[in-house]
Amino acid sequence: KALGSRKSQEFVAKYKNVYDVTDFAAISYDAASLLFDAIQRAQDSSPRAIRDALAATRDFEGATGTITFNADGDPVGKTLIIMKILNGRPQVLLTMQANGASRPPGNDAR
């Protein structure tokens, strides 16, 4: 599902040749990309330096859109998703806004 950004379109073009393009795949891709970006920006290779670089992330262009973390370490304007794998397939258990409000699956206020 392309969101329209250059990064989203690049992700879909590369990924669809090998795998099914799903929201779960895009979220996982962004998580790994954020970590790799933080490792490159970290002052050294210590876990603390990498954590600090990750927390300082601003305007990171990912497959799911632009990602910025606030002072609490929450992604600004993003919905946090808690999932589990059931019968080999990802299943959403809970979604949560950065302000702490949560809702069960099927109650999205998008």
Question: Which secondary structure elements does this structure contain, and how are they paired or packed?
Answer:
Layout: H1 6-15, H2 23-41, H3 47-55, E1 60-62, E2 65-67, E3 79-86, E4 89-97, E5 102-103
Antiparallel strand pairs: 1-2, 3-4, 4-5
Write a structural description.
By secondary structure, this protein is α+β, with helices and mostly antiparallel strands. Helices cover 35% and strands 23% of the residues. It has a three-stranded antiparallel β-sheet with strand order 3-4-5, with no helix packed on it. Strands 1-2 form a two-stranded antiparallel ribbon. Helix 2 (23-41) packs across helix 3 (47-55). It is globular and about 40 Å long.
Q: What is the end-to-end distance? A: 16 Å
Q: Identify low-pLDDT runs.
A: none
Biggest sheet overview: 3 strands, antiparallel
User: Within the largest sheet, what's the order of strands?
Assistant: 3-4-5
Extended strand count: 5
Shape: globular
Helix content: 25-40%
Q: What order do the SSEs take from the amino end to the carboxyl end, as H and E?
A: HHHEEEEE
Number of continuous helical runs: 3
List keywords for this structure.
globular; 3 helices; 110 residues; alpha+beta; two-stranded antiparallel ribbon
Concise structural overview:
35% of the residues lie in helices and 23% in strands. It contains 3 helices and 5 strands.
